[in-house]
Every structure is written in C-alpha cells, then in structure tokens.
C-alpha cells in the first residue's frame, strides 16, 4: 500500500477513535492515539493477516502488551472486518465482545489477553519459539508502552528473546514519555531505552512513531544476525488533538461536547494537510 | 518400597514426550531438582530452561500454548504460585491457555530449606482462580496418572507433586480421573479426606485407631478442583463427622474445599487439620510434621478427640 494511502487510513482511524471515545465517556485515549500510525503500518501493510480467518496458521502475530491502549486496535480490527463496527459502540459495556482491556477469548483478532502490564514480550517470546518449532516464517510483533517497561518481567523476557535468538520477534516501544501519574522520566528515570535493548543483544532502531514511511521501512528491514528487533518509536501521547497532546490527564479521560467538537475540527484539518 | 513422587514425575514426562510431540517442558533453573532434566536429556529441542525467571516462564508457556503446544511448566510450588501469580492469572487462566503447572516441593515436607521454600498456600491461590483445575496426587502411581490425565484434559491444570518418600498406595492399573476421589479404606465412624503424603498418614492413623475401636473411612482426594462432591456427601451420610488433613494451610486448601461442599449441602461436624496460619521453618520433614501436628501420632489424637467429642454430644 502506498504511504499516502496509509497516512489517510491512520487519520480515518484516529477520527473514529475520537468518535468512539466520545461515545463511551471516560476511557484510555492518550495512549491509543499515540499508537495509530504504528498499528496502521502493521495492519494495512506489513503484517500478513486474514480478517475472515483470524487464526490463519501462517499469519503474523500482533500482541498489544499495553492493553489499556486497545481502542485504536479495536477500531482497526473492526475496520478490517475481524468483527462488525457495530461492536465499537459497546466497548467497555456489559456483555460486549470488546472488554476494557483486550481478551483473546472474546474478540476475534486479539492474540493475547492483556491489561496487567509487562507480560506481552514474554507471551511474544512463547509465540516466537512456537513458530520456530513449527518451521513457520511468520513474525511476532509486540507493542509495549515505555512506562510499561518499568515492569521487571519485561527484562526477563528481553534477555530470553536474545538468548533464544528470536529473530522472528519484533518489539515496538510506544515511546510517548508519559504514564498515568507522571512523565516516565520523573517517575522512574528510564533513559536510553535503545541502549538498554542493545546491551541485551537486540537490533535496535529509533524512529519517529508517527512517520508511516519510517515505520513501514523499519518494520520491513531485516538483518541476518539472529537477533530480535526493538523499534523505539518516539510518539506523542494524545497525538492529533492539541489539548490532549503531551497531557498526562488524557491518559484516561472524558471529552466534553465542546472538546469533542474541537478535536474533530483539528483532526479534519490535520487530515486535509496529509 | 518408599519412593518420592517427584522422581516418577521425571520419568512420566519422558514417556509422555515420546507419545506426544506437542509436549514442551519448561523449567526455571531447577531441572535437576524437579527432575525435568530427564526430559531435557531425551528431548533437548522441546525443553527450555528459562533461567531464574518464573514470571517470564509462565507467560512464555501461555504463548506456546496459544500456538497449540502443551507446555508443562515446572518449578517449586512456592515460586510457581507466588512469584508468578499474576502471570498465571492473566496469561494462563483468564485466557484458558492449555498450560500444565507441575509444581514440586510443596508443604512442610520440603524440610531444611525452611519457610521461603515451603508452599503452604499454593492450593488456596490456585483453587480460587477461574478455569484452573487443581490436583494433588498422593503416591508415585497417582502422580504419573495425574500428569497423564492433565495432558489429556484441555485447559490449565495445577499439579502439586510431593517430594517426601512414601510407599505405593495404588496398583499400577489404577484409573485416576479429574473430578474423582476414591475410598482407600471403608469405615463407619469418621470420614477422613486428604491428599499427598497425608493420605498415607491417614491410612496409618486409620489402622491404629481401628485397634482402639474407631472406624475411619479414608478418602484420597487428589482432585481438589473440581472436587468429588458426591463421594464426600455419600461418605458423611454413614459417618458421624468429617476430618480433612493436608500439608498446607488450614485456610483455602482441601479443608476449605470440603467445608464448602459440606456446609452448603449437608452440615456435618468437621475438623480441619493442616498448618495453622503460620509459616514453617527449617528441620527434617519428620520433625516439622511432628511440631506442626501433622505426624501420624498427632493426627490420630486429633481424630480421636474429635470422635470422642461427637460421642459425648
């Protein structure tokens, strides 16, 4: 798919996310908006998937480790036809297939139940090992938050991925710099993420996480050295909506009618610029 | 001949590995203690030593299970259920991933390593988790059968594998089923329900008490969840009271599981014997059982007192 088309798709998804978030009320919106270009690149270009056969044996696997950011993923899965868009209005509601945090048994296309942070890379290591045992060339992509990397289990998983030479595993860090209470730097100063992954024996690339061209290129790049890949995607929490961008309070929040109107107007302008 | 169920576990894995290519064994730097080393030697490509990373190991096993493999994850009971509780909860139980957690070194029977290594809460922790099946086999035969049944069953299973040596209580053709207990000795005065090595101790206590005119019905309840409700209710119809015995906390384990059945169906006098809401300590298994009231003599006395109290009423 050409880059222009992917950029438009990302804008369409971002606008829909705002619609569903407004419809729902209070929800995790900031960390959903920061992932949109990454998810768009993966789902509309990079990954082999089949919405009509979510368990296709040789599909690529995507794991959203930062489960709270699931609204962007749900919107994309519905757009691709994994399930009907009607479900998006039921997100977080009683009886919905769309739980507040993703649940693999309820939602087609969700590979892993997540919500308790820090488990996605490990789960991805398990899948990557399984794919090697099966002799499949499919790849495993795990999207983690930078704040989430504070969980110690990640570093067990990062060490094991390197130990088992899992070159079919790619971890993308949604490096938006903010967490629930604070900036990541103020809460648990976590500098030089790329160096940390590299020191554990990973191939590391740092990119602009909103530049679709750069995302696609980095996801498609292969190095024949048996190392897992970490892509540090520098992003903006709340990307696309001025009053949400880099604002901690928009980790989980509710838009007023006026805020919704402003958000829609800004996103429309943003789309026209693309 | 006395044998540790743990030793049988290693051999059982090798047998299962030969029959089923989907079985993968994971351990966390304890292959020689949990005996998964036997599988490792035979099937190195299907054995992963994950290092001292229990949390990672549980989530990795869930990832493998999500791809159709049957991971058997092994570490000490205390680390499996305590250290990696949340990983078991989210990655394994909540997603109903087909992982078998084979936990060794449970209870005071661990001995000298002390309280940090003696899991007295593991059954309690696993039993309250939806989708989780909890097994605590007694002797070597039942341990082997429990692992085989766990592999046949689709869904998460926690298997508590004893370390203390004990004799065979079952014939080799014994047929273990998840959800079923068994009467090992019929009796009419008191129903005794236990698991693991305490089943052996219960049989010894029953023999001694029969000489004193007290008849115990000894039930071995290796399937703690689901529990054999019918067997318990049938037994208490003919006896005067029920006693549970386990090398586990008196809270949340077999005692609680049996009490839930009894209280909600047929309230009956009951006694729960186990470790009384305290941590263990170092010592030999025999010394610890004696000090914490779980040796045959203490068990026998507790049951006798309970019986006499019922007789007075």
Give the amount of beta strand of chain B, in percent: 15-25%
Order of helices and strands of chain A: HHHEHHEHEHHEHEH
Q: What does the average pLDDT of chain A come to?
A: 96
Rg over C-alpha atoms of chain A, rounded to the nearest angstrom? 17 Å
In what order do the strands lie side by side in the largest sheet of chain A? Answer: 1-2-3-5-4
| CATH class category of chain A | Alpha Beta
Q: Which structural category do the helix and sheet elements of chain B fall into? A: alpha/beta
**Number of strand segments of chain A:** 5
> What characteristic shape of chain B results from the CA principal axes?
globular
Q: What is the second-level CATH architecture of the largest domain in chain B?
A: 3-Layer(aba) Sandwich
Main sheet: strands, sense, barrel of chain A: 5 strands, parallel
- Tell me the CATH architecture of chain A: 3-Layer(aba) Sandwich
Protein name (chain B): Transketolase
Family (chain B): Belongs to the transketolase family.
Keywords (chain B): Thiamine pyrophosphate, Transferase
Pfam family, one (chain B): Transket_pyr
Give an overview of the whole structure.
- The complex is a heterodimer of chains A (274) and B (313).
- Chain A has 274 residues and is an alpha/beta fold.
- Chain A has a single domain (3-273), classed as Thiamin diphosphate (ThDP)-binding fold, Pyr/PP domains (Rossmann fold, 3-Layer(aba) Sandwich), CATH 3.40.50.
- Chain A has 10 helices and 5 strands.
- Chain A has a 5-stranded parallel β-sheet with strand order 1-2-3-5-4, with helices on both faces.
- In chain A, strand 4 (203-208), helix 9 and strand 5 (229-234) form a beta-alpha-beta unit.
- In chain A, helix 1 packs across helix 4 and helix 3 crosses helix 9 (212-220).
- Chain A is globular.
- Chain A starts with a helix and ends with a helix.
- Chain B has 313 residues and is an alpha/beta fold.
- Chain B has 2 domains: 2-167, 3-Layer(aba) Sandwich (Rossmann fold), CATH 3.40.50.970; 182-312, Rossmann fold (3-Layer(aba) Sandwich), CATH 3.40.50.
- Chain B has 13 helices and 12 strands.
- Chain B has helices at 5-19, 31-34, 37-42, 54-65, 77-83, 85-93, 122-127, 140-152, 197-210, 229-238, 254-265, 285-291, 296-312, and strands spanning 23-27, 47-49, 70-76, 100-104, 133-135, 157-161, 182-185, 190-194, 216-220, 223-225, 241-249, 270-275.
- In chain B, the strands form 2 sheets. Chain B has a 7-stranded mixed β-sheet, sandwiched between helices. A 5-stranded mixed β-sheet of chain B has the order 7-9-8-11-12, sandwiched between helices.
- In chain B, helix 9 links the parallel strand 8 and strand 9.
- In chain B, helix 1 runs parallel beside helix 8 and helix 4 (54-65) runs parallel beside helix 6.
- Chain B starts with a helix and ends with a helix.
- The mean pLDDT of chain B is 96.
